[in-house]
């Protein structure tokens, strides 16, 4: 895992980055690896890939963070990327794999109300995707909105959002 993270930092080749991110994401299926990746500063390294220019690299980074977000300690680190994840969802092509990867990660990050406040400004985006997206996109957006709606503090924001 350490070598994969080092490789991710050392290369600018998007194909190598994608493969390293896929492997890290798959490794995160095991809880022991989630802790190891966090302890190796892997969440920040992977999170740094969210600003990469290559959409496929961003998508693979979102998928890896999604698998890593199943751990509460990891969520505390990942939460700093929520605004960037939301911006990636907003700017991604409609119904793209990149957009869906971001929505899946936001679904996991919104299961508890701890980080809902970081998504408030993007509620209009979610509502737009709900009306404009395909069924797959709509389902993912609905999962985020259902999680947000479970928090009474979000009611005003959800009801006042302009679409």
TrEMBL record:
Show where the Armadillo repeat-containing domain sits: 1-163
Question: Which Gene3D superfamilies does the entry mention?
Answer: Leucine-rich Repeat Variant
Q: Name one GO cellular component term.
A: mitochondrial outer membrane
Cite the InterPro entries for this sequence: ARM-like, ARM-rpt_dom, ARM-type_fold, Armcx_regulator
Indicate whether Membrane appears among the record's keywords: yes
Q: What is its main location?
A: mitochondrion
State its location(s).
Mitochondrion outer membrane
Note the topology in the membrane: Single-pass membrane protein
Keyword check for Acyltransferase, yes or no: no
Keywords on record? Membrane, Mitochondrion, Mitochondrion outer membrane, Transmembrane, Transmembrane helix
Family annotation (Pfam families): Arm_2 (PF04826)
What's the protein name? ARM10 protein
Q: Which gene encodes it?
A: Armc10
């Amino acid at each position: 895992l350490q070598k994969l993270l080092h490789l991710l930092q050392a290369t600018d080749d998007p194909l190598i980055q994608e493969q390293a991110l896929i492997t890290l994401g798959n490794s995160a299926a095991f809880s022991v690896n989630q802790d190891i990746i966090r302890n190796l500063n892997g969440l920040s390294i992977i999170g740094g890939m969210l600003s990469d220019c290559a959409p496929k690299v961003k998508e693979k980074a979102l998928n890896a963070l999604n698998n890593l977000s199943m751990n509460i300690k990891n969520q505390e680190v990942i939460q700093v990327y929520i605004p960037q994840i939301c911006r990636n969802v907003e700017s991604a092509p409609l119904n793209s794999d990149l957009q869906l990867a971001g929505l899946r990660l936001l679904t996991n990050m919104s299961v508890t109300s701890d980080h809902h406040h970081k998504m408030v400004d993007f509620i209009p985006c979610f509502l737009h995707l709900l009306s404009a997206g395909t069924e797959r996109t709509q389902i993912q957006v609905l999962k985020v909105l259902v999680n947000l709606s479970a928090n009474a503090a979000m009611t005003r924001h959800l009801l006042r959002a302009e679409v």
